[in-house]
Amino acid sequence: MLICLVIEMLTLDLTFLMLSIGGLAGLGSDLLGAPLWLQVILAAAVAAVLLLALRPPLLKRLHRGSDTRPSNVDALLGLDGRVLATVSTFAGQVKLANGDIWTARSDGQGEIEPGTPVRVARIDGATAYVRPRPQELTE
Q: Which pTM value belongs to this model?
């Protein structure tokens, strides 16, 4: 039980907490004089019920206020921007809607002239691969 509690403190996933409580139920049945086979069955049953019934709502409640917006590179995917220096498959520069200026390459669309509205298709290291924005979005 103690080992499960220590692991739970390191993982914070509530799995080992449920296993530890199951072990506590087995210990309680031992103190009441139950045979070993019943202690094992009781500990396993309590742990299984807690894992299946109690853990999911607890995790949902624990993560209720977490921020689900993408961050880091994921937040840049699909972001609009404008070409500052001609973007080709080898070089270029864009200014993204968030104000950042990135080294850019064309994502297989040929050369993109300065001033053209673009959208980030992917990020590879410190390079944004961009493609021209669809026409209906630029008007």
A: 0.52
Residue 128 and residue 76 in contact, taking contact as beta carbons nearer than 8 Å: yes
Q: Cα–Cα–Cα angle for 75, 59, 40, nearest 5°?
A: 140
> How far is Cα 109 from Cα 55, in angstroms, rounded to an integer?
49
DSSP 87: B
The whole-number pLDDT of residue 138 equals: 47
Q: Which long-range contacts (CB under 8 A, 24 or more apart) does 62-65 make?
A: 62/14
Q: pLDDT tens for residues 33-51?
A: 999 999 999 999 999 999 9
The Cα–Cα gap between 84 and 96 comes to 10
- In whole angstroms, what is the distance from residue 101 CA to residue 30 CA? 67
CB 77 within 8 A of CB 123: yes
- Residue 128 · residue 120 · CB < 8 Å: yes
Tokens 């499960």 label which residue? 4
pLDDT tens profile 75-130: 888 899 999 999 998 989 999 998 989 999 998 778 899 999 999 999 998 899 99
